[in-house]
Amino acid sequence: MAYLSLTGLSKQFGQTIAVEHFNLEIERGELVSFLGPSGCGKTTTLRMIAGFEYPTTGQIVLDGVDITHLPPNRRHIGMVFQSYALFPNLTVAENIAFGLKIARRPLEEIRKTVQEMLDLIHLSDYGNRYPYQLSGGQQQRVALARALAIHPRVLLLDEPLSALDAKIRVELREEIRRIQQTLGITAVYVTHDQEEALSLSDRVVVMNAGHIEQAGTPFEVYNYPKTRFVASFIGQLNLLPVQVSDPARGVVLFKNTPIQVELTAPLAGVSEATLALRPEELNLGEVPGRNHLRGKVLDVMFLGAIVRVRVDLQGHEALADLFNERQMSLPRVGEEVTLNFPPHACWIIHE
Amino acid sequence: MSQGPSIPLRQRLLSWFFLFLGALYFFLPLIATLEFSLRAKKGVLSFLAYERVLRDPKFVQAFTFSLEMALLTVIVGVILVVPTAYWIRLRLPQLRPIVEFITLIPFVVPAIVLVFGLIRVFSRPPLLLTNSETGTQILLVAGYVVLVLPYLYRAVDTGLQALDIRTLTEAAQSLGADWWTIITRIIFPNLRSAILSGAFLTITIVMGELTMASFLVGLRAFGPYMSQVGQNRAYEGAALAVISFMLTWAFTTLFQFVGRRALGGDQTFVAR
Ligand SMILES: Nc1ncnc2c1ncn2[C@@H]1O[C@H](COP(=O)(O)OP(=O)(O)OP(=O)(O)O)[C@@H](O)[C@H]1O
Ligand SMILES: [Mg+2]
Question: Could you tell me the pTM of the whole model?
Fold first, then answer.
């Protein structure tokens, strides 16, 4: 049995259904992130795990014990908030010691743990400062240390990096991942930033309108999205309307251009479908054995490592992400280009 | 070099003029009282009136009595108001308008009505309190708590507003804290300056309060004592007024100083 399992969880606020049919098993030491658009129920689910909300239906079992109705202060689950929520009247060291003092740990142990935690977050000399004397990133690290000091059974993080600026965000997310792996903590991480979710999770749970659309490794949800929502929510996606011409061999037509598709599901009985294709799978030029589409360049965006070309394919726009190389010649706006992609790069979404 | 928007000279003179006028309105009566209080000895300026006031044992008695009442009011009021205001902000926000209205009662119901009500209810069994000294003091403190509610509640509520109490509460809960711990270790310490300013107002109000004190404890309290001296002995009355004014100022300065210095935690509000 999994370490933390959420079974048939749902939560209703009056008429609003915030979460429904939520089933998830989380293994010990795993970092799972909840990813989804605003209002999809990420925070609500996290708060039910923490005990700040009680589910309308369903069950939460942690380490074999049903904790569905246990009050939050008896769950031993750590929480990191978007707004840091450090106690303003306590110093950094006192903040970190707070949970240990409540648990009445011996003074010597508290002192030692606080120092360990300060070292862990690289703020060894900041113990005597007050929260308002720290930067946002430092405050959030202290909040992390405070949550970790009690050796929580699960660590919950609700958009912990949203209030920070881009550079600190990347730095700190790597640090969170490092600490989580070092300590072997089981963690649930809520975010609406897909890059964040993909880069630091063992598993990503993509949510939409209160339910799970797909749960899988970052590689799975990105490369093998199970629903149209997941496909379009994560990463950029080109969607082209196609007619099925040879279901048996996997040939479809886009405006009379035949496209070979690698068959993963049978196409029999389907006439209209949508072809999905990631921008990074598209390249310029003709390559034997690949599919080809001709179009006109609408604009070219230079993004550094990537050059994003927007192409008009007979009335349908598509994006092509090309790797930047120093000797490459950038396509010009208005130029006619040929895009190529291999059959295994695209897939069919049924209507 | 830019020096910010420069205000025309005429406008500046005008604002100084009004400031001067305001100061005059405020200080003139004070100076007049001070001057009058120094004239107890005919023809010369002297501190005779002050000597008489301070030598009167009743002055010290009344003063300490009222100070005691004031401190009790602060303690009872704070214990009552802080958890209430906290809980309403945290869990019962829909009740806030009602509670705010209740705290305004002293502005709607005059103190005289309040004190008669108290005396009527508590002057017969089963709640007979008016026949003993302790009983009347309990009534007095209770009445004062109601009287200072508008100030105390508002001060505390404003203090709470500056804190993200919901998240702080949840953070404390996730660290294992129960309600007692949250209120004593997080809420109270972070409300220090709010509580202090509420307490200061409370003390000032109670020290000068006349109506309730007259009916419940009479001349034992500072308010009635001051009023009696003022009626019977003009110079001593003026001296007393000056003394109580000085004390008020001393209190203000003291609290500002103490509030800033010793109670470090609150600096966060300034920093935000
Ligand atoms: N206490 C509440 N009372 C009423 N409705 C609520 C409450 N909390 C959440 N909701 C509703 O439940 C739904 C899910 O909210 P939730 O906060 O879980 O979303 P979220 O995925 O965390 O969104 P965001 O990315 O914006 O934080 C929303 O429609 C929200 O309005
Ligand atoms: Mg949220």
Answer: 0.82
